[in-house]
Every structure is written in C-alpha cells, then in structure tokens.
Amino acid sequence: MTAATTIPQRLAALRQWMHDHSLGAFVVPSNDPHFSEYVTPHWGCRAWISGFDGSAGTVVVTAERAALWTDSRYFLQAETQLRGSGIELQRMGVAGTPSLAEWLQQHLHANSVVGVDGALFSRAAFDQFQRELVEQQLELRATDDPFASIWKGRPPMPSETVIALSEQYSGESTAHKLARIRQQQPQDAVRIIAVLDEIAWTLNLRGGDIAYNPLFISYLAVEPQRAVLFVQPQKIASDTAKQLQEEADVEISPYEAFTEYLTTLGGKKVVVNPNGLDTRSWEALEHAEAHLIRESTPYGAVSAMKAVKNRTEIEGFRQAMERDGVALVRFERWLEEAVRSGARPTERQIAERLHAFRAAGEEFRGESFETIAGYGDHGAIVHYSVTPESDCPLDTESFLLIDSGGQYLCGTTDITRTYHFGRPTAEQRRDYTAVLKGMIDLSASQFPVRTRGAQLDVLARRYLWAQGDNYLHGTGHGIGHFLCVHEGPQSIRMNENPVVLQPGMVQSCEPGLYRAGSHGIRIENLILVSETDVPNGFLRFETLTLCPISTTALDIEALERPQREWLNSYHAEVYRRLAPLLTPDEQAWLRDKTRPV
Amino acid sequence: MTAATTIPQRLAALRQWMHDHSLGAFVVPSNDPHFSEYVTPHWGCRAWISGFDGSAGTVVVTAERAALWTDSRYFLQAETQLRGSGIELQRMGVAGTPSLAEWLQQHLHANSVVGVDGALFSRAAFDQFQRELVEQQLELRATDDPFASIWKGRPPMPSETVIALSEQYSGESTAHKLARIRQQQPQDAVRIIAVLDEIAWTLNLRGGDIAYNPLFISYLAVEPQRAVLFVQPQKIASDTAKQLQEEADVEISPYEAFTEYLTTLGGKKVVVNPNGLDTRSWEALEHAEAHLIRESTPYGAVSAMKAVKNRTEIEGFRQAMERDGVALVRFERWLEEAVRSGARPTERQIAERLHAFRAAGEEFRGESFETIAGYGDHGAIVHYSVTPESDCPLDTESFLLIDSGGQYLCGTTDITRTYHFGRPTAEQRRDYTAVLKGMIDLSASQFPVRTRGAQLDVLARRYLWAQGDNYLHGTGHGIGHFLCVHEGPQSIRMNENPVVLQPGMVQSCEPGLYRAGSHGIRIENLILVSETDVPNGFLRFETLTLCPISTTALDIEALERPQREWLNSYHAEVYRRLAPLLTPDEQAWLRDKTRPV
Which CDD domains does the entry link to (chains A, B) (predicted)? Predict the structure, then answer.
C-alpha cells in the first residue's frame, strides 16, 4: 500500500502537481473546509505531506525547498518528526523567524504564483494572506485539492451516524431556531452555514465525525421557506430525515451537491461569513453572481444565538455537572487511596481511570477533549499530552494538574483541579493560593450589563501580577451545550473582544500559573452569566461545576473574608447537590473535603 | 453696538447667508479650528447664534426651523437660555430624540445641501457626518465661515503673549523634539500639526489664548530641514523668535498665511491627522495635489510622544504636587476652622479661597480647570458648576466634593477630595469606603507591560459594582505637563482603548459615586506609570498627588489589609514630603490627618 511512501516521495508528487498547475509554491494548512478545531484524518493533508502530526502547523513547498511553521508547543516534536524529510522547521514566535510571506519572497521569483486549496482557507484568511503576498510581489491563487489525486490511500470522509437531540435536551425546536435565524437576514435571502457546530445546534442533531466534538461534516442553506442540509445521506436515519422534513422543512441533499447548489444562487441575496466560508465556495457564489451579504460580526449570527443558552440547556448543564461531579468524587477518592497505598499510578493510568469513572455514569458520550494529567513539571506544559516516553508515576513532591471534560446528552463539561498529595512548599502554597484567589474573585464578581470579558479578566490575574507572574492563555472560553468545548463568540481574556457577556452564556474560569521545569497550577470551573434583581441591570456568575477544590496547598490566612465565604459557600453547595447521588462512604469523604475553612 | 441683536435677528442673518449660498441648512458646532477642549470667544459661534453658552451643543438651522442638541448636563440651562429664541431643544441620550441627520431628513427636501464651516469639522468628523447625511439623501458641503460677515462685533482672535519653557522645565530641547518627530515620517515629508497642545509641547512654548489651558492659537509645519510656526507674530517676543530660529530652525509666519502655505505643498508628501486637521485645510491640500499620508493612529505621533513624560517633566510633576499639597493643606485647615467657627462659607467662597491658597505659591499659572465645589446633592452633579442661583453654604450633613487643579511651570495638577464635617450616615460611610477601596486597588496594582487601561478599570469599580453602583465617567485620563488637564491618548475606562500604558504616562485615578439628589463622592490622585525591577516586565503606578485623604467617612474595618497598608504608607509619604514646607502648626495638623489607621 501507499502508506509506505516516504515524505520525499510525497513532496515530489506535490511538486509535480504544482508544476502541472504552474505554481511556484503550495501552502498546506491544518484546516478542514469547515474550520473545525479538530480535523478528521481525511483532511490530515499537512500531516501526510510532512510527517508532523501536531495539531498546529503549516507546510510550504516550493520546487526546491519545503518548510513547516509551528509554535513552541511543538518545537521538539516537529524536530523529531521532520528529521530526514528535507522540510525545515520554522519556529513561530522566535526572533528571526520569517513569516510565510517573507520566506516565500526569499525563495521565489517576483510575480510567482502561490497556490492554496481554496477549500481550506476562509475568505477572510485568503484575503489576508493575499495582502501579505502582494506586498512581497507574489500572487495567491485558490486551487482544487491536490491531495485528491496525489494522496493514494487517503482516509475516506467519516460517516458516523447522526442522532437527533430531542427538545427535552435542546429546549428549542429546529423550526423555531430556523425562524429565529431567518429573522436575522433579509426575507428573500439564503444563509449559507459551513461551521459545523452552528449546523448541529440549528438542527438539533449531533454526530460523531470528529474526535471529542459531536459534529457531522455538512453544509446548511437556510432559505426563506425551507432549509437544505448537505450531508452524506446514509448518516441520517430515515425517521430523523422525515422529522426534519415534516417539522422544519429541512431537506437533505448529498454533501457533494453543495458546490452545485451554490451555482443555483445567481441573482439571489446570500448571507455569508467571510471567516466561516471557504474561498472555493465563495468564488463559486461570486461566479454565479449571487448578491453576497457579509455577516455583520466576525463570528456570525448563529454563533451569537448558540452562545446564549436557554433554560433547558442550562438545566442540562446543571445535570451534567452532577454526573461529572459524582465521577470526579469517585476518581479523587480512588486517587487518594492509590497514593495512600503507594500504588503510584502513572499519568496515563490516572487519565484512563478518570475516563472509566465518567463512562460509568448515565448519558456519557465521551470526553470533550483529551484529558491533561500532568505531574510536577508536566503540569507546567499548558497543553501537555502524555506520551509513552513522558508518562510518569504520581509522586507527592509536587502538584498533579488534571484538566478534563465530558460530553453528556444534557451538556458539556470542562474542569481543572490541581492536587497535592504531600506537604506543599511555601512557594507551592503561595502559587496555589494566588491562583485560587483570582478564580474566586472572578467567579464572585457582579458587573453591569454590557460588560465585556476583557474588563473582568484582571480579577483572575491580579494576585498573580502582584507577585510578578502571569499566564498567557485566556481566562475563559465559551462552551457548547453537548457541543464543542471551545466556542465563541464571548471570551474572558487580556485581548479585547467586543462581545458583551449576556445572561445564558456559559464559559470557563480558569486562571493558572506555570513554572517551567517545576510545577503547574490551574483551577477551572464553568460559570454561567446570570441575571440579578439588583436595580439598573447588574449581572453575576453562577458557578455550574460541582467538585471540591483542594485546600491542601491553600494558605487560608491569605484569603480575604469574601473569598473564604465564597469557598465555604461553594463547598456547601457541592455537598448539597452531590451527596444525594453518593454512597454513605462517599458522602463522608465529600463532607470532609467540603468542610468550611 | 450690535451686541444688542436678538437671537431671531442673528438667525435671520444666517438664513440670508444660507440663501445666498444655496444651502438648505447650516450646522454650527462648538469647535474651534484646532479642536480644543475650551474654545475662545472668537469661535463662540454656536453660543452667539443660539444664546446657549454651555460647553457642549450643536445648532442646526434651516430656512424654517432651528434646533440645538445638547446632553443631559445642560438640559435645564438650555431650556432657560433658548426661551423665546425659536430654537427647539433636542435632548441627546433621551429616547425619541432624532440624530442631526434624521432631523435634517425630516425638515429638508431630498438632495438639499447642508453646509458647515469646513474649519470647524475635522476631516474624520466631516466624513462621518457626510455618510450619515448621504443615507438620508442629503448632501454635505464645507463652506467658509458665515460668522465672518454676519457676526458684527465678533471678539477678535486672542493675542496673549507666548512664553518659552526652558529646558529646565521641559527636559528636552525643541530641536531634539523636532528630530524625533521627523523620525516618525518619511525623510522628504512635511507634517502639519493643528492641535494646539501638540504645537506647544513640540516648541516648548506656552500661551494664554485659552482659559485653563496654556495654549496659543497656531499651526505648525514640520519640514525636513526647518519648521514653520503660523502664529500672530506679535505674540512671540523677539528673543524667543530668535532662539527658535537659531536653535531649532523654526521660522515664524503669520497665522493667516497658513492656508496659503498649504497651497505650496503640491506634489509633496504631507503627514496629516484626519482627527486633528480641519476639512477646509484638508481640501486645500487635496486641491494643491499634495500626497497625503494619514497618521497611523487616531491620535497622531506627537500626542503619543507627548504622553510619555521625561525625567525632568516627572520631577516637575513631583514639585507641582508639593506646591499643590501645601496649598491644599492650608485650604483644608481653613475649611475645618470655618466649619468649627460656624462661618458656613458657600461653594463659591470655598472655590475662591482654594484659588487664593494656590495663587500664594510659587510658579502658579492659574487653575487647570474651573473648580468644582459641590455640597450635598450638588456633589452628585458630575460636572457641577456653581452659579449665583445654585451657590449654597457648607453644612455638616453631607459630603463636600472638591475637584480642582493648578497650572505650574513645572507641571499640571488635578485632584479631588471629598470631605464630611459632621457624622456620616451608614450609607455615606459605605459609599465613601467603596470608592476609596477602588481608588486604592487601582493605585496599588502591578501589571505586565502592554496592559491597556480598560483591563485595569474594573479594579476601581468592583466594590461599587458589588453593591449595585457604578459611575459613568472614565476612571482615568491623561494629563499634560503644564499643558491640558485632559490629554490622550491613553485612558483608564470601561471602553476599549488600544493604547497601552507606558512608563512615563501620567493619568488620573478618580472613581466616584453619585446619588442624585443626595450626595456625590469622588477621590482622585494622579498616578504615574513606573517601571519595576520585577523580572519579565511588570509596571506599577507611583502616586504623584500629595494630599491627605479624609478618613472621617471611612469604615476602616472594611479595608482589606493591603488597602490599609497602602493608605498608611501613602499618608506617611504625604507627611514626609509636605511637612518640611509647612509651619509647625500646619505640621501638627498634617500629622493628625496622616496618622495610621
């Protein structure tokens, strides 16, 4: 089989294709045509052409040279995987590393044409890259997919079954969602949706095409009177299809028919998102002379609607948290016992055991992302992913950081706890306490309507800043309802994001502190923006996550009174909600973990 | 004299002028051609045409009607002053109030032409207004100044003497500043500067043309080899002119020659700020076919340079604070004695007395803005300006809010203190304490380089938000060095402002709380962004203002430990710095006011 082709052979095949198409260079990103966070193997073109299989990277190939751009998370892995490939590593964020456009200018003649698969660049990303190349006197062209011909043995498109999420879980019928979407566009317009979680949310469907995210590969066209779902028909059970048709006027058409459909929209008003629709589809619409209406925000109207959870979804989140909380209590009891008995499970064993506790619960539909279980210095690697080489046994000198989440029919969870099973040092206590104080202050904050996440972010960071520390990831990301663990459009981070926090939005609250080579700390709950009865429109957060927060490394004296009160109140709620779901032994354990400080 | 003309007569004269120029409407803003915060009487066209003399307002006149738009600060004043004028009041921010463009659409035929004096609209403001009018199918045209002919007895341009600020105060020579400015533009370009504080800063000159702001009406052109200052020549003493020429190649040309000069720039690169240059000048440059280069930021390169104070300027601020502090100590002692003796001075008398204490010090060059001295419910009016009708005697039931500042050769001050001379109620104590805690938290914060003001703003507001309160003004504005009390480009406020806080920037820290009809509280210091020796680039604030903060209404038990420590440390510093400048009696008084809590 062709799996045995070498990277140089694959590069040669691409170069032949480039030559046939008169391209001076070709750029291979990590995207799929739907701009998903996780990409199915069918679109793993960048990994196939380079041998580098980290989640983030872009390969550029010219007739003579090839290079891969990736970020610091992957420098070591890329060095190893690129060895012997002839592909140079370009370290993003390191001084002296050229941009793609600069590198291309150095290695191409002026006015050379650079090709990209138009399906893998959003219109906005294509336009931006084009501007950069024009500055270097190069041309950018959207092409077809070269890997369709050169990648022998390419994995097929995934074809997992799609399930319908009943209104008992979604809280809003598909017909009603479609009606609300149509209100956001001119009466005679068609909206084209390519972003998979927008489609899943709109149609109350969930799939299994993509790891961790319950999505299915598809496009959706919302017309004035009907909607058309472009999807491999075999994924949709006939009763689901019938229900979609009868209750919401949704017709099903083959995935491959989408491009053809676009050509029928000539003269029509078509609402499109430059950040959510690929360049090839965009060019098809332009070629058909459709009247394009760009979404008024970078994230699109459906994402904005999806971000505000309804009462049923919120109640579902609360149930998911109870299930998750029970699993986490059982897991932590097991972990403590393992430490006590000297069993010293490894990071990988810990992650597997946590999975098993979650899987034993009801309605569990898999993890919402790959569990991060990092002991000691591994905890300081923000996106640590255990490998056979890195896997190490738990010890009692440092922190164990566990960031994990579950998918349930009723909601999605994402939680981080940091444990210490020995005697924390003064530095460890100081660091842990500073992280927790920030987590509490943000969780306990009250703020006026129309507040943006960037205004609140400092509440989670200020104790770290005061001691000269910081964390370079966001404090909070939106989270889907039995959907993607990362979703927009709101965020809580240092960067400005004009989206205001609205009642019904669920996001994480996850400050951290990472001392390279020593330890990492992160404490994360999910928090819901909630109304208050305070006059003049003040909002607050309701903490959804139900799981004790370790106090082993907490300097209780360093808590301010409101922080101590918050912690005690939170723990009382954790006990009140979880205890009825636990055995007497577990209840006793939880009572101890949630006693007031 | 024509001062006796009535508003209807003035409107009639403008309408005749509009008729002669085929204009359907004319818009009169509050601006001068330099977009100054304070406008000299010469450009008081809007006040002259309407009789309304508040600081903010725009008059629109059609053949049949006239209307004035102003904000809630001025609703009452405008109602009174417009009575009998035939000018309707449009209340900005009140539901149902049309925008100017909407109102014009209602009262004009389609395709009518709306005129504005091109000198009073920046290019950016003109373009924005034009877009709004085009949406209403109206046309906007920049005209000459109708008031040049119709306003008989118009006050002349001010012609106060300009003084040179020696390097002892400015810390950087004019030649050096010009060299730095030229580094920010193409070698062969000319930069046009119309904003008065940018000109004063660049040339190390100060004037007296405008109330409170030591500015002089002028334009500046920074050419590659020389600079040209357009100013009434009699304002500049001959030795100053000679020094400018010899040391910095600055030539002086009459103010009126500026427009003629612009016509000589055909074919040249000209750096201009669309927010800082008027439309008439802009059109002259376009007509001459100059190659216009727009400034890359909305505020312009010179404002960015001016905002970062050098060591001499910072040392000057510290001196100004000592002078201001001595005056404020003497003032507060007098005030306490007045209360004790039952003298009950009025707000106006209090403001006058404060002025006298400042004026008794060295290098005082007037107030930096009109003192706000508001007792009780007057303190709740954010921009309270005492009138003969409103003036009231001090009492001991509520707070006295005093916001004031001084201009000194060595710097500019701006300080607010809120006093209570009786027994504060529980609500008064709660409110005062919440304001002070926020003021302290922001002042004491440490933050990474590249932090924006909007990220820190919540530190000043969170205790207020927690009790369901807020204030709708900014927390901090930049302040000039013996220049304008309000300057950009940085700010600390709820709105996003992409300008990062840099070492050397001086701004206010002034949270407040306003209970309409009851009381107002504001506590304001000036704070300097300062480097720290913390690794990885952390900044902090140095508090510059030296004046005790009243603890009469402070609930000391509600302070967190770091807040209490900050207050005690601040008061110790106030005593240390001011005591040597005071008499023994004053020292004893200050020791009492600054004792640890």
Answer: APP
